[in-house]
């Protein structure tokens, strides 16, 4: 290999490594529904860019998490929602989603949800800081009267095999080469799903049995009577401890028992339009840390 070609390839590899470190992705598991009459549990898998500088085009991906097969078992894809050639948002640039590689042995199960990209970079689906559902998975409830709880746990960057994805990088053109590139995206936040008690879920004492917990991605406290407060829907009997931070990490609001009453103020001062961050800890053990947009 001549030196000119060597240094060209070295520069290409260096640029790809730099792109691979440009931003992160976040994933979460959301309880969608418990159908205790049919003994089914529906869980949605979602993805987003970690922050505004991390937006990307979805390439291939493998989302892995573990579950207790004593309590739930036999996962199947109930609904394909994005990055797939099937469903309401079908794109022919992706293959159908699959659970190839999933295993269930005795008490332990691992879900492997796969995205296969088959198009060109102009057609890849963009991922922003808004949560995008990938698929809803259906599990069999082994015993809906079980008092024990369970947690669906992500295989993060410290587990093996890891959850990972590649982003599609726009085509590179040089006098000698014309090629598409795919680079690994660094992982960010992994939000597990904890169900405190399967029996309480089926009895209706858990609010998620009747309505999915919904945390807004933003609100507009401008006094027009609409969306003026940061409102967490379907809290039910749960107690929420809420802390709001600005970009510098300064606490601007906190409550040990949040009553959906934060109106975008730091004490009596209106906060400006911008991005803020919250930490929410629920009495059932779940915790959420994300960003929100305040608009005036």
From TrEMBL:
<dbReference type="Pfam" id="PF13585">
    <property type="entry name" value="CHU_C"/>
</dbReference>
<protein>
    <submittedName>
        <fullName>Gliding motility-associated C-terminal domain-containing protein</fullName>
    </submittedName>
</protein>
<dbReference type="InterPro" id="IPR026341">
    <property type="entry name" value="T9SS_type_B"/>
</dbReference>
